[in-house]
Design goal:
Distance between the termini: 10 Å
Strand content: 15-25%
Largest sheet: 3 strands, antiparallel
């Protein structure tokens, strides 16, 4: 099951929206991913782009 909100800012994702995930399935919006330099704030892994 896909996350419906950004882990960091709680933005609600829309169908087909670009999101970013680490291997632990933490999910971030584009703005938060840029702010975090594509590194998960929870585990330190690289965030990978996924279509919601």
């Amino acid at each position: 099951m896909q996350a419906t909100n950004c882990t960091r800012c709680a933005e609600t994702f829309e169908e087909g929206q670009e999101t970013y995930h680490c291997s632990h399935n933490c999910t971030y919006c584009t703005d938060c991913t840029k702010t975090l330099n594509s590194i998960c704030q929870n585990c330190g892994e690289k965030l990978i782009q996924v279509q919601q």
